[in-house]
Design goal:
Oligomer: homodimer
Largest interface: A-B, 63 and 63 residues
Strand order of the largest sheet of chain A: 1-3-2
Strand content of chain A: 5-15%
Structural class of chain A: mainly alpha
Distance between the termini of chain A: 38 Å
Radius of gyration of chain A: 19 Å
Number of strands of chain A: 3
DNA sequence: TGACATTGGGTGTTATAACACTTATATTCG
DNA sequence: CGAATATAAGTGTTATAACACCCAATGTCA
């Protein structure tokens, strides 16, 4: 199996710097893992972002979350959450209600259908995670998580 | 600075598994690093994918590369390389010539303008990498690279 | 040789992302 | 109070990604 990046990129020369090599490894790994999860979600017509919205709404309880809160919690930057939610609403996965206390806010909650869907997907997604990363032991996973967290932590 | 994922996601509960936590950390880190590089490339009107094409063409020399070779070397899956190259050709960055030996092939090469642009960007991109990751030491970077490589290597 | 499969490139169309802008409500403070 | 500012959501438009499909050139093999 092709896993070395220099192999995949057919690079003769070494990387310009460890920084660059680390960056490209993060990017490549994200692509590989993301594609795997997409294969699980695609039969249900969900993108990874939509799945993450479902999960965060499940965690948020009955009050749901307003649009900007959803946007800020997303892993990936997403400038057009309104229409993302439009599509999910059309699909019957979420429901939106304008708040009465602050009429600027619109609270989005999971529908029963959305809740059922995300519950169904849990096992499949967990299975895919294990298929992808199951060959790493606990120590390796913890180290990886620590280093990635550190990479995002300046100061 | 917000760096812990549970903090960013406002999660009360711990992650479901180390696998999931690792996946989300990879995804989040990719977003943060990608966004930083985008800020460097945006003034030149380039996406990260286009920049990677420029770099790989520079490395490929005078013969250039055919479309599928470019597609296969890309970090991110990109199903529509033809039109990506169309845009780069319109921008005067690359040039395409149908091969005479095998008339199915179209070789893409860097133009002088494309070459100059990618050369100019090297320092800015390297600087951004250092700004982003400069607080990690060599050992940490190497370990991170190893673990990410391992994560992509099944068997 | 000639039918069939394979490979490489491209196109048509739809869906989604990105960017700038608008409207409605709430807050601040002279 | 009331004008100015800030905040939240959404819209219009363009660019790009995604998906299925097509055509041309080459390779394969009976």
């Amino acid at each position: 199996m092709t896993s070395s990046l220099r192999d995949q990129l057919r690079q003769q020369k070494p990387f310009r710097s460890l920084y660059q090599e680390a960056f490209l490894n993060v990017a490549r790994t994200e692509t590989v893992l993301h594609d795997g999860i997409d294969r699980v979600l695609q039969p249900k017509g969900l993108s990874l972002t939509q799945y993450n919205v479902l999960r965060m709404l499940r965690g948020a309880g009955d009050d749901g979350l307003c649009r900007n809160e959803i946007r800020d919690r997303l892993i990936t930057r997403m400038p057009d959450v309104s229409r993302l939610l439009d599509r999910m609403e059309e699909g019957g996965l979420v429901s939106r209600v304008r708040s009465t206390e602050d009429r600027r806010l619109v609270n989005t909650t999971l529908t029963k259908r959305g809740r059922t869907l995300v519950d169904q997907l849990d096992d499949a997604v967990a299975g895919e995670h294990e298929r992808q990363l199951g060959h790493l032991n606990q120590t390796q996973l913890k180290t990886l998580i620590e280093l990635l967290t550190l990479a995002r932590t300046k100061e």
